[in-house]
Amino acid sequence: MRYANITGWGKCLPPAILSNDDLATLLDTNDEWITTRTGMKERRISHVPVSSLATVAAARALACAGKQATDVELIIFGSTTFDEMCPNAASNVQKQLGAANAACMDVNTACTSGMYALTVATAMIKSGVVNNAIVIGAEVISTVMDWSNRNVAVLFGDGAGAFYLQADAQECGVIAESLGCYGESREILAVNGWGLKEAKNAVINNQLHWAFEGQEIFKKAVSGMDQACQKVLAKSEINADQIDLVVPHQANLRIIDTLAKRLKLPRDKVFINIQRYGNMSAATAPVALVEAIEEGRVKPNSLVLMPAFGGGLTWSAHLLRWGERTHSLGESDVELAPCNKTALELIRPN
Description:
This protein is of the alpha/beta class and 350 residues long. It is built from 12 helices and 13 strands.
């Protein structure tokens, strides 16, 4: 049987940092209010389009795996904030990387996009359609943020994470997953006025409006991720106490803590980086896994559980059996263009 081993990993965080104190200059809020309710201290703001973040993360994943861009057979780009809808954003990454042999596709399931992309790539490798793939979760949420809305402006940030997957005979990579959606509640987390339905009106006139019903989202997030985790554990016949590390979507520290309690897992088995980046939507879980590897939290043959939740309302959980290698084989020299503005300067209207 074929598996899809993750042999390369990389991230790209734009350099401009927006702190809670910075947000307090725009909103009726302060560091204590944000931290106690979300666990977030700062987030990144991108000065470049999302495809640029994605390209740097992908190049780093390739270098980590010791591969060349021409080796890549498939690029799957998960995001909500694509530079353009046609042509797809994955083709732009292909062009910037020089991965001329790669097929390209985009996936949009909001915050779970990177994880859904991981499922698609894994399935295509397992079925023999391709032998390897780059999976990307990247987001530049700041471009569509309502910076006057305290309910959402404090939560989101920009970034990118990427993985290189290749066919392997050993049981590794994603060994079980569960995907789902609360479509009947899709309106409670939405960016209204974005898309062809309203393109001639709201977008052109800069009238994007965020729908964000926090309490209902909290309930659905915990329920969806818990349900997905239970399905994955049952499918793989593994008990929660056998999990070595949980790397959850970093939407809210309270959500993470509540989910851990439902799974009866101690906090020291849960990886958290929400304080550094906030919720980077599709990039959140991929970046968290990259950092867990970098910090030595993922060991050879570790069982890693990755629950996620996003607008739509999509949910997922992935159970990974890590391979033998946890160190990088190389470094990439691909970098972002320099940034000469502060985060506040980037988000303030001209």
